[in-house]
Amino acid sequence: MEGDVRVINEMVKQESVFVERVLGEVSKVIVGQKAMVQKILVGLLTGGHILLEGVPGLAKTTAIKTVSDALQTSFQRIQFTPDLLPADIIGTMIYNPQSNVFTAKTGPIFANLILADEINRAPAKVQSALLEAMQEHQVTIGDTTYPLPEPFLVMATQNPIEQEGTYSLPEAQVDRFMLKLEVTYPTKEEELEIIDRVTAQVKQRAEAVVSPEELLQARNVVSQVYLDEKIKRYIVDIVFATREPAQYGLRELADFIEYGASPRASIYLALAAKAHAFLRHRGYVIPEDIKSIGFDVLRHRVIPTYEAEAEELTSVDIIKRIFEVVEVP
Questions:
Q1: 252 part of a folded domain
Q2: What CATH number did the domain enclosing 114 receive?
Q3: What is the tally of structural domains in the chain?
Q4: Rounded average pLDDT over 240-264
Q5: How far apart are CA 209 and CA 23, in angstroms?
Q6: pLDDT mean across residues, the chain
Q7: What residues contact residue 50 under an 8 Å CB cut-off, 6+ apart?
Q8: 308: in domain
Q9: Which domain holds residue 252?
Q10: Model confidence band, residue 166 (pLDDT cutoffs 50, 70, 90)
Q11: Going by C-beta distance under 8 Å and a sequence separation of 6 or more, which residues neighbour residue 211?
Q12: What does pTM read for this prediction?
């Protein structure tokens, strides 16, 4: 087994060389937000979709557009509005009077990277059309089913400050996103650099440094990253602690958790940890990978109760406590 891990480790070191190239290209355009860009790469390396929450103006759109440029992938931004229809996303049948036939006109969903901007602005019918495409990686227009291009990643943004005229995503639909990232404000130094770059009027653009084929090859290597039995048990213990906190010496959390994380959390935690190890040029997962990516996998899957809200406890506070108590292998 040790020999196998050594082989995987060498393979990961070779295949993950492009990570620094991508991060370098992205940093030409984006100041800071390195964690967000790395999590976008985690999504691309595992096929998991990402939900971003942050106030306007934090370069969410620019980040995914820049990653798309660096990866030579196609990119589409869909602005969600209350009057959007499912056909506006997936496409529709168009009648041609000359030939008397209907032909399919595909929608903007047929791209590698999709930015679903302000997903909570669109009604449930549109949200479900997008989520079906995310789940099945295919779209049905008329009688024909069309596969979506690979790699395929949806990044949806939510604006947390303006709730008027929005349709919040049901918990079951939010669960389909592998990661939920909270995008934070830049530091003072970063903001000074942003001012310098923007006022200098010099438009930087990321060069293509990786092809979609290389990315899919890397995805295959990520799936081979070694996950020890003890690490698997650690993942399951963390997820079970969100469902049955009393069994893990966390009786005080029992009244604060309405719903614990689903089995999807265990699957995504394992996959995301493998991708996180790959980004660190490692062929095996360590507990630090689980802790680093755990908050993003669990924050939208642990639903606090009204009592927790009254105590001003968020899902992040609950997850932090679980990580503090559950024994690390």
A1: yes
A2: 3.40.50.300
A3: 2
A4: 86
A5: 10
A6: 83
A7: 39, 40, 43, 153, 154, 155, 156, 177, 178, 179, 180, 181
A8: yes
A9: 226-325
A10: low
A11: 71, 72
A12: 0.85
